[in-house]
Write a structure and sequence with these properties.
This protein is mostly helical. Helices cover about 75% and strands about 0% of the residues. The chain has one domain. Helix 1 packs antiparallel against helix 11 (about 200-230), helix 5 (about 100-110) crosses helix 6 (about 115-135) and helix 5 (about 100-110) packs across helix 8 (about 150-170). The two termini are about 25 Å apart.
Length: about 290
């Protein structure tokens, strides 16, 4: 039960962070917002590790992979925040749910993991849901808005991020990976600040610090959740994030999700659940 509560809390914090990102995207450059998200998260993580361990676990056996993983997460945030400046939070969240499906496909291709026919069917069903959530012209009668492609790009980049996370789990201690999550992203986005930085108002400084702390805290809660409950129990809970995103969109931005968004999200969730259900007994030794 503790793991479930931690997972739900992490998802709520993610939605709260995304809501703040959408609010700030109306007035501040996306690269500046993303810099704040990673810089202040990195500071929070470094301080927490220093207090809890008495040192900062920075030595990695694969620093190049750690840097690439961090940069991929920064790319995810840039694309997703860019999308939030143009489309509703619930819509962006629904399209972003393609990421677990892409991860399954990439795991089969890159990690040589066995994927059963049922899971491939789940991937195919999920992608049908993604096509619906992208709001194609034959469903809406309107041209596809380019911003809907940004969360789809986020989903692909996050899938590669997940693959690297699996790979690094066999190479580095989890605390090393947690420390490196924001390191390269902070450095890369800091380099861009002289070109884009807009002096924030005091309340915007507060929001910038808040998104960083929320990012660090939400990822920390996820780590704790998966340490206390099996992934097969926690992973399906990720789809409840659309509920919180829809509520945030309604309460903060007056964006009500329409039937197309909800239909796409339901199909994506159904496909995702097909990939997450336990394998039949004859396949378990292979997965």
């Amino acid at each position: 039960m503790t793991g479930i509560l931690l997972q739900i809390s992490a998802l709520l914090l993610f939605v709260l962070m995304d809501t703040l990102l959408k609010l700030m995207a109306a007035d501040l450059p996306v690269l500046q917002i993303i810099w704040a998200r990673f810089f202040f998260a990195f500071l929070a993580v470094a301080i927490a590790l220093r207090i809890s361990m008495g040192r900062i676990p920075w030595r990695s056996r694969a620093p190049g992979l750690q840097a690439l993983r961090s940069l991929l997460l920064a790319g995810c945030s840039i694309l997703f925040t860019g999308a939030l400046a143009h489309i509703p939070l619930a819509d962006a969240t629904a399209v972003g749910f393609a990421s677990p499906l892409i991860t399954v496909a990439l795991a089969a291709i890159l990690l040589r993991e066995h994927v059963s026919p049922r899971r491939w069917c789940g991937v195919a069903l999920g992608f049908i849901g993604v096509m619906v959530a992208l709001r194609p012209p034959f469903l809406t009668g309107q041209p596809l808005h380019w911003a809907y492609l940004l969360p789809l790009g986020t989903a692909f980049m996050f899938a590669f991020y997940a693959i690297l996370t699996r790979r690094l789990a066999a190479l580095d201690d989890s605390r090393v990976t947690i420390f490196h999550t924001g390191l390269a992203a902070s450095l890369a986005t800091s380099l861009a600040q002289p070109l884009v930085f807009v002096p924030p108002m005091p309340i915007e400084w507060g929001l910038m610090i808040a998104v960083g702390v929320l990012g660090a805290l939400s990822h920390g809660l996820l780590v704790l959740a998966y340490a206390r409950a099996p992934a097969s129990l926690l992973a399906p809970l990720s789809y409840t994030q659309l509920i919180w995103a829809s509520l945030a969109g309604i309460l903060v931005f007056s964006d009500w999700p329409d039937g197309i968004t909800l239909l796409g999200a339901v199909i994506i969730a159904a496909g995702g659940l097909m990939t997450l259900l336990p394998q039949p007994a004859r396949h378990r030794s292979e997965t």
